[in-house]
């Protein structure tokens, strides 16, 4: 079954890198540099996983994930936050994200974290 | 109240807020029967992503441009206050004050009475710099707003003090933002180094990847040292 990952990051280099790294057979990767339309993105693509930068226009990653989590039918969607914020772990807990990646993270950590939640 | 989107900053950390609290305490002793109002324009701090996020409270409909402010509406708001009120707004950052503090001094503070005519005097800081600070003193119509030379000096010294603290806050914010922003491209470099190291059969790529990894580790170390240094 095709897996779908939505990636939200306002740094285009990092966004493109994440896409390159995660692209593979049986996977659809959709990238966005803003997050205010996240609800319609979720309704349109039915993602298995959302990778969300915390500090992203227009509404910020925290608010965007809170919007997604408001709808219980989205509970199956895994969410990984990434940020340079020192309190990323706490924020991740607060909004019910499944995991977090603290910038700067490396390739191995990134792949391992994503694979863990796609397998689940 | 101020609300910060960034969780590594809180309103209590803003030195300008602490400075204003201090100033307001002193003014309350000097002018127990007047309302003191600070209007501080500082646009940059508000506009930065993750900067101060306002909890907007409309005080009537004043545009907050000093020449059009509706003091009666403002007074109606002030008259209901019993505690100093700190206010942030960025709905129209080009014109609005970045930060405002109101002290409900005597003048029926807390009574909710709004039938008083007010007069006011606005003091504007001469050296505008990056910030434009105003201090407004209001009193019941008929009460004198004339200040002694010493009182005028006090006001301008306070404005200078607030200006200094606001600049300090701004630099602190910029440093934090810089440190934060640096970590995103660093992540890209780190990921590229990982990709290069995935090619062990190409020793040149592998070595380049190792060098990039080492360099990113050093940069991260420098950022962390810098953070520890400014926080110490």
Which SSEs are present, and which pair or pack?
The complex is a heterodimer of chains A (120) and B (232).
Chain A (H helix, E strand, L loop, with lengths): L2 E6 L3 H11 L4 E6 L5 H8 L3 E5 L7 H10 L7 E6 L4 H8 L3 E4 L4 H13 L1
Chain B lengths: L2 E2 L10 H16 L4 E7 L1 H5 L4 E2 L17 H9 L5 E4 L10 E5 L14 E7 L7 E9 L8 H49 L5 H29 L1
Helix pairs in contact in B: 1-4, 4-5
Question: What attributes characterize this protein structure?
Answer:
heterodimer; A: 120 residues; alpha/beta; Rossmann fold; 5-stranded parallel β-sheet; 5 strands; 22% strand; B: 232 residues; alpha+beta; 5-stranded antiparallel β-sheet; two-stranded antiparallel ribbon; 5 helices; 7 strands; 16% strand; CheY-like_superfamily (chain A)
Report on the structure:
The complex is a heterodimer of chains A (120) and B (232). With 120 residues, chain A is of the alpha/beta class. Chain A is 42% helix and 22% strand. Chain A has one domain: Rossmann fold (3-Layer(aba) Sandwich). Chain A has 5 helices and 5 strands; from the N terminus they run βαβαβαβαβα. A 5-stranded parallel β-sheet of chain A has the order 2-1-3-4-5, sandwiched between helices. Chain B is of the alpha+beta class and 232 residues long. At the A-B interface, helix 1 and helix 5 of A face helix 4 and helix 5 of B.
């Amino acid at each position: 079954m095709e897996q779908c990952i939505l990636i939200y990051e306002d740094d285009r280099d990092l966004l493109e890198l994440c896409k390159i790294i995660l692209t593979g057979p049986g996977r659809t990767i959709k990238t966005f540099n803003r997050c205010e339309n996240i609800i319609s993105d979720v309704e349109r693509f039915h993602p298995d996983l959302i990778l969300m930068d915390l500090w992203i226009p227009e509404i910020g990653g925290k608010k965007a994930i809170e919007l997604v989590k408001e709808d219980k039918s989205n509970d199956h969607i895994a969410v990984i936050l990434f940020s340079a914020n020192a309190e990323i772990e706490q924020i991740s807990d607060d909004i019910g994200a499944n995991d977090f990646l603290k910038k700067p993270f490396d390739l191995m950590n990134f792949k391992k974290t994503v694979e863990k939640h796609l397998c689940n | 109240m101020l609300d910060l989107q960034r969780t590594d900053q809180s309103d209590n950390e803003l030195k300008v807020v602490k400075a204003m609290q201090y100033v307001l305490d002193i003014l309350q002793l000097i002018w127990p029967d007047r309302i003191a109002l600070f209007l501080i324009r500082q646009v940059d701090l508000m506009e930065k992503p993750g900067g101060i996020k306002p909890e907007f409270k409309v005080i009537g409909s004043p545009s907050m441009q000093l020449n059009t402010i509706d003091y009666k509406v403002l007074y109606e708001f002030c008259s209901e206050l019993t505690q100093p009120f700190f206010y942030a707004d960025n709905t129209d950052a080009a014109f609005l004050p970045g930060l405002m503090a109101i002290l409900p001094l005597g003048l029926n503070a807390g009574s909710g009475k709004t039938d008083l005519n007010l007069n006011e005097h606005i003091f504007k800081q001469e050296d505008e710099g990056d910030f434009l600070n105003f201090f407004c003193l209001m009193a019941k119509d008929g009460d004198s707003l004339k200040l002694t030379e010493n009182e005028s000096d006090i006001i301008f010294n306070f404005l200078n003090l607030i200006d200094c603290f606001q600049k300090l806050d701004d630099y602190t914010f910029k440093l934090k933002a810089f440190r934060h922003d640096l970590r995103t491209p660093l992540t890209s470099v780190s990921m590229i180094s990982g990709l290069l190291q995935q090619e062990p059969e190409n020793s040149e790529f592998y070595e380049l990847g190792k060098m990039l990894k080492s360099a990113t580790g050093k940069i991260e170390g420098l950022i962390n040292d810098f953070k520890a240094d400014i926080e110490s």
